[in-house]
């Protein structure tokens, strides 16, 4: 293991802060083997996205959406929280971080032990599905088993509504409650730590900017440069597990 420059500075900023917020993107989950869908070569550059309106309008679009989702199920189902997730969990448990705002849909922050009410999911969650009409919850494994038998897009057993992963699709509005909570937490934070987001997807990427303008200390940990590096108080271009685990003393 190598020593990462800036870790001592990060540890000190965390020690000094009274109320931190973590903002996470794909980069924290790639260390768990979840692909970054938006990266060059990522799945969203290879396949045309299916928009929400098409999902509603077309049975073929619903089947294709589910075919793609089930094709990735082994990756999602087998992924486990990594050192970066564990470090964030420790910060929440110690009362240093009040909320985790995430662009990720993999549920790994909750799997690391963070109470679900402290995780704000801006793009929803793909580890389960809901009925778009009545909200009934469905687990992925039985939906997949049924799909492999009949090839049909799942329908709600209660109301026959369309069942869709609990994610925010292209063309679907941002979840209002999550956006509002993310804004409240951002404005209440004195330390805002970005982990593994290139900060290019708006409106999500607006939160670090808002935190900084509101007087919070802004830290960015990301392997590549981000659009807000010059704006941040501390930038570390390194692995999230090494940086956060090292700064907090979590393996
Ligand atoms: Zn229903």
Structure summary:
By secondary structure, the protein is of the alpha/beta class.
Explain this structure to me?
The chain has 251 residues and is of the alpha/beta class. Helix content is 40%, strand content 17%. It has twelve helices and nine strands. It has helices at residues 7-16, 26-30, 43-46, 52-57, 59-71, 73-78, 83-93, 108-111, 140-150, 176-188, 206-213, 240-248; strands at residues 20-24, 97-102, 119-121, 124-131, 137-139, 163-167, 191-195, 217-221, 234-236. Strands 3-2-1-7-8-9 form a six-stranded parallel beta sheet, with helices on both faces. A three-stranded antiparallel beta sheet has the order 5-4-6. The mean pLDDT is 94. Zinc ion binds next to loops.
Gyration radius (Cα, Å) is 19 Å
Number of helices: 12
Major sheet: arrangement of strands: 3-2-1-7-8-9
Structural class: alpha/beta
- Element-by-element helix/strand order: HEHHHHHHEHEEEHEHEHEEH
Oligomer state of the chains in this structure: single chain
Please give the largest β-sheet.
Answer: 6 strands, parallel
Globally, the shape reads elongated
Helix content: 25-40%
Beta fraction: 15-25%
Ligands and ions found: zinc ion
Distance from N terminus to C terminus (CA atoms, Å) equals: 11 Å
Count of β-strands:
9
Mean pLDDT: 94
Report the uncertain regions.
none
Outline the secondary-structure elements.
Layout: H1 7-16, E1 20-24, H2 26-30, H3 43-46, H4 52-57, H5 59-71, H6 73-78, H7 83-93, E2 97-102, H8 108-111, E3 119-121, E4 124-131, E5 137-139, H9 140-150, E6 163-167, H10 176-188, E7 191-195, H11 206-213, E8 217-221, E9 234-236, H12 240-248
Parallel strand pairs: 1-2, 1-7, 2-3, 7-8, 8-9
Antiparallel strand pairs: 4-5, 4-6
């Amino acid at each position: 293991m190598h020593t990462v420059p800036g870790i001592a500075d990060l540890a000190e900023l965390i020690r000094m802060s009274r109320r931190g917020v973590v903002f996470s993107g794909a980069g924290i989950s790639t260390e768990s083997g979840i692909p970054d869908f938006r990266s060059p070569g990522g799945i969203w550059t290879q396949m045309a996205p299916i928009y929400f309106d098409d999902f509603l309008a077309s049975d073929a679009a619903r089947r294709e959406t589910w075919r793609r989702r089930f094709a990735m199920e082994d990756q999602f189902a087998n992924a486990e929280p990594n050192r970066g997730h564990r470090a964030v969990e420790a910060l929440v448990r110690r009362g240093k971080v009040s909320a985790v705002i995430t662009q990720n849909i993999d549920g790994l922050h909750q799997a690391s032990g963070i109470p679900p009410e402290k995780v704000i999911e801006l793009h929803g969650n793909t580890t389960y599905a809901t009925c778009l009409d009545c909200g009934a919850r469905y687990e992925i494994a039985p939906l997949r088993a049924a799909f492999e038998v009949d090839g049909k897009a799942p329908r709600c057993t209660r109301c026959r509504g369309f069942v869709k992963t609990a994610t925010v699709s292209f063309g679907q509005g941002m979840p209002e409650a999550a956006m509002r909570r993310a804004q409240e937490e951002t404005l209440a934070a004195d330390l805002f730590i970005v982990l593994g987001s290139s900060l290019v997807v708006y409106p999500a990427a607006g939160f670090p900017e808002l935190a900084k303008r509101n007087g919070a200390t802004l830290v960015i940990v990301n392997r590549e440069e981000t659009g807000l590096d010059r704006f941040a108080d501390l930038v570390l271009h390194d692995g999230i597990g090494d940086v956060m685990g090292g700064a907090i003393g979590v393996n």
